[in-house]
């Protein structure tokens, strides 16, 4: 069974680098990866907050948030 991995970001350079080096490097045999650009999908900010995301970029693996570097606080996104 695959683990769900949701990568939330805002499109900033830190986020794009994290997407390329972290989110897209996850093994597709083990993870169902969804990339969520909160700048383009502002309606999903509440979902990210509910998942425990405090800043982006962040990767939520199996319901557990992991914050990668710091691009923007989630409050700044909506």
UniProtKB/TrEMBL annotation:
InterPro entries from the UniProt entry: Thioredoxin-like_sf
SUPFAM superfamilies assigned: Thioredoxin-like
Protein name: Thioredoxin family protein
Native species: Luteolibacter yonseiensis
Phylogenetic lineage: Bacteria, Pseudomonadati, Verrucomicrobiota, Verrucomicrobiia, Verrucomicrobiales
């Amino acid at each position: 069974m695959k683990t769900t991995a949701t990568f939330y970001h805002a499109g900033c350079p830190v986020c794009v680098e994290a997407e390329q080096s972290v989110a897209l490097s996850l093994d597709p045999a083990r993870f169902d990866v969804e990339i969520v650009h909160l700048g383009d999908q502002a309606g999903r900010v509440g979902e990210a907050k509910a998942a425990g995301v405090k800043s982006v970029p962040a990767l939520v693996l199996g319901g557990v948030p992991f914050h990668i570097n710091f691009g923007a606080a989630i409050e700044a996104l909506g």
